[in-house]
TrEMBL record:
<keyword id="KW-0723">Serine/threonine-protein kinase</keyword>
<dbReference type="InterPro" id="IPR008271">
    <property type="entry name" value="Ser/Thr_kinase_AS"/>
</dbReference>
<dbReference type="InterPro" id="IPR000488">
    <property type="entry name" value="Death_dom"/>
</dbReference>
<dbReference type="Pfam" id="PF00531">
    <property type="entry name" value="Death"/>
</dbReference>
<dbReference type="GO" id="GO:0005524">
    <property type="term" value="F:ATP binding"/>
</dbReference>
<dbReference type="GO" id="GO:0005829">
    <property type="term" value="C:cytosol"/>
</dbReference>
<dbReference type="InterPro" id="IPR000719">
    <property type="entry name" value="Prot_kinase_dom"/>
</dbReference>
<feature type="binding site">
    <location>
        <position position="46"/>
    </location>
    <ligand>
        <name>ATP</name>
    </ligand>
</feature>
<dbReference type="GO" id="GO:0000045">
    <property type="term" value="P:autophagosome assembly"/>
</dbReference>
<dbReference type="InterPro" id="IPR011009">
    <property type="entry name" value="Kinase-like_dom_sf"/>
</dbReference>
<dbReference type="GO" id="GO:0010506">
    <property type="term" value="P:regulation of autophagy"/>
</dbReference>
<keyword id="KW-0418">Kinase</keyword>
<dbReference type="GO" id="GO:0045087">
    <property type="term" value="P:innate immune response"/>
</dbReference>
<feature type="domain" description="Death">
    <location>
        <begin position="358"/>
        <end position="428"/>
    </location>
</feature>
<dbReference type="GO" id="GO:0004674">
    <property type="term" value="F:protein serine/threonine kinase activity"/>
</dbReference>
<dbReference type="GO" id="GO:0016020">
    <property type="term" value="C:membrane"/>
</dbReference>
<feature type="region of interest" description="Disordered">
    <location>
        <begin position="311"/>
        <end position="339"/>
    </location>
</feature>
Length: 432
């Protein structure tokens, strides 16, 4: 929880060593990393760009109204005393934002064990803000920060509230735009820019944010034109007309659990009264429990994999773009009863094999394990084994294993799928 102390309340400019290069840019000013001597830790400092003067009650809002693990905490506000000085907003430091993560590893499928926890963090923070009557009004990947423990926190909350940004529509000639970021604005606010934002507008933005987070793609591709009228026209058509409303079909290519697809659908619902962060979070928690994402070793493996990706220690493999298998179904294998028992044990042990309704579809995606193609495996070893190898590959991908001999060994040990393990080891030439 946020920690507000007398020491922080008396923080001065001289207590901070600011890094020259900004780490972010918001609508109120640039954000710099800094070292705070009094805290003996890194912090983030937003230097307000204009000469705005905050009232005491506004500073109290900044310091006391937000105290949640999934909302960026504001540690102190340093007020200017001399001509030319600016307000400094001192906040907890986070290593990345979601946009930076996706720029760093644009083509990677992130392990679902960690992705699901990040989604839950975002929804928990949003639910808290709404309970405190905050409407964020600009949820987007850049405003979701992630610390070194891969915990997500919502940023840019208090400043929007005290600046009255929620209710400002931007007028450009005869064009009126609602405040916020165009790609994440709800249909209701596009149709009426002067409409006061509501909680359901945040839910809508959150749905699009989560889609971007998973796929690294936007549901809407605006024409590359400076013509704002054209962009608004396109957005209204895509968002408000059932004929053009985009489906979530791309989520299948990322082996998205059905519960997460449902959660995003709840947030992105065309009927604003049906949007609910609470109901969406219920679906995410169901996914955690159903697919075993809460297991300590599963989460640790996912975090290690993600950390290595962020540090550039593992290659990022390109995504496939063809249709993925249907979600929520697993075929029974062909073969003798001992193989069926092995498969049943496999499913019991792993519990996150949703998606293999057609193993041939999985093979056609061209996924290979050390250059072993599933079609070739079928030809040489038969359909039942090829299907099981496809399932093993899917488990590896969902749990963050790269297709290397060392990680293959780990996957085979963890899945306890003895028959597939023996055959796959033989194919790979790995000692028994």
């Amino acid at each position: 929880m946020a920690d507000y102390t007398d020491v922080l309340a008396q923080l001065q400019y001289t207590d901070l060593t600011i890094h020259r290069k900004p780490i972010g840019q918001g609508k109120f000013g640039k954000v710099h990393k800094a070292f705070c001597q009094k805290l003996n830790r890194d912090v983030a400092v937003k230097i307000i760009s204009d000469k705005k003067i905050f009232k005491k009650e506004e500073i109290d809002i900044l310091l006391k109204s937000v105290a949640h693990d999934n909302v960026v905490s504001i540690k102190a506000v340093i007020a200017p005393k001399l001509e030319g000085e600016r307000y400094w907003i001192v906040m907890e430091f986070c290593d990345y934002n979601l946009q930076q993560i996706r720029e760093k590893i644009p083509d990677e499928k992130i392990p679902w064990a960690r992705w699901t926890f990040l989604i839950n963090d975002i929804l928990a923070g949003l639910i808290y803000l709404h309970e405190k009557t905050f409407v964020h009004c600009d949820l987007k990947p850049e405003n979701i920060l992630v610390n070194d423990r891969f915990e997500a926190k919502i940023a840019d909350v208090g400043l929007s509230r005290i600046a009255g940004e929620h209710y400002i529509a931007c007028e450009k000639g005869d064009l009126v735009l609602p405040s916020g970021t165009l790609l994440y604005i709800s249909p209701e606010r596009l149709q009426n820019p002067y409409k006061a934002p509501e909680f359901t507008d945040d839910c809508y933005s959150c749905g699009l944010l989560l889609y971007k987070m998973i796929t690294n793609g936007d549901l809407f591709h605006l024409k590359d034109t400076p013509d704002e009228k054209m962009k608004i026209s396109c957005m209204k058509m895509w968002l408000c007309d059932d004929q053009y409303r985009h489906p979530f079909k791309d989520l299948k290519d990322f082996f998205t659990p059905q519960e997460i697809v449902t959660a995003i659908g709840i947030l992105w619902n065309k009927d604003h009264d049906s949007r609910s962060a609470v109901k969406a979070q219920d679906m995410v928690l169901e996914a955690m429990n159903k697919h075993g994402y809460r297991r300590k070793e599963t989460l640790e493996e996912a975090d290690k994999f993600l950390k290595n990706l962020m540090d550039g220690k593992l290659p990022s493999e390109p995504q496939n773009t063809e249709d993925s298998p249907d979600v929520g179904k697993v075929d029974s294998p062909e073969g003798d009863s001992s193989e069926v028992e092995d498969l049943e044990q496999f499913v019991d042990d792993i519990a996150d094999l949703d998606g293999i309704s057609d193993w041939k579809q999985f093979a056609r995606k061209g996924l290979k394990l050390r250059q072993i193609d599933l079609d070739s495996i079928e030809e040489e070893h038969g359909k039942p084994h090829a299907r099981r190898v496809a399932m093993l590959m899917k488990w590896m991908e969902q749990n963050g294993f790269q297709a290397t001999t060392a990680n293959l060994e780990k996957a085979l040990e963890k899945c306890k799928f003895k028959l597939a393990a023996q055959k796959l080891r033989k194919i790979e030439g790995i000692p028994q």
